[in-house]
Specification:
With 173 residues, the protein is an alpha+beta fold. Helix content is 35%, strand content 20%. The strands form two sheets. Strands 1-7-8-4-3-5 form a six-stranded antiparallel beta sheet. Strands 2-6 form a two-stranded antiparallel ribbon. A hairpin with a 6-residue loop joins strand 3 and strand 4. The termini are far apart. The N terminus is likely disordered.
């Protein structure tokens, strides 16, 4: 049932969720994490739909996607031709290990043990917004990753954003 729920597209109008902030929190002994109040407020319209939690592709952290945002990701992935081996291998690897998680009445969600182990999470965590999803990091690993990126952030910013056409109304500077 969970697998079908993940892959079944929703055909209602979906508004982009723009999440903002980085929050420190703790996991309890069972691996439950409480959404910080400010993040819970941003997620209030999608909290009841559940979330998909998965391994990050590029980092030793987890990603938690509101179900409406996950549906958009699945829409992109489902366009890949499964008769191309590279595509099929990517889909299998990308979709492996993901889980549907719900938020309980206290605003907590459970990080499954296998994913908890993948990200080598300890008790101190960081929930970091990443536009339409949240990264879940072990606090020490998050701080090390940010410090490493900041060493040459100007060059990274130029490489990533420097070739974007400038629009006077976008407010980016």
């Amino acid at each position: 049932m969970g697998f079908i729920r993940i892959l079944a597209p929703r055909f209602k109008a979906i508004k982009l969720i723009n999440l903002i902030g980085t929050y420190e929190c703790k996991a309890d002994a069972k691996g439950r994490v409480m959404f910080p109040a400010a993040l819970k407020k941003q997620l209030k319209n999608v909290m009841g739909d559940g979330f998909v939690i998965k391994r990050s592709v590029f980092n030793q952290c987890l990603e938690i996607h509101p179900m409406s945002e996950w549906d958009k990701v699945v829409g992109q992935v489902s366009k890949l031709n499964r008769f191309v081996k590279k595509n099929n291998d990517f889909i299998r690897s990308y979709m492996s290990g993901l889980k549907v998680v719900d938020v309980d009445g206290a605003g907590r969600f459970l990080i499954p043990k296998d994913l908890y182990g993948f990200a080598d999470l300890q008790k101190e965590l960081v929930l970091s917004s990443s536009v339409n999803m949240i990264e879940i990091w072990d606090k020490e690993k998050y701080e090390a990753s940010v410090a490493e990126t900041l060493v040459d952030f100007g060059t990274l910013a130029e490489d990533v954003m420097g070739n974007q056409p400038q629009d006077e109304s976008d407010g980016i500077s």
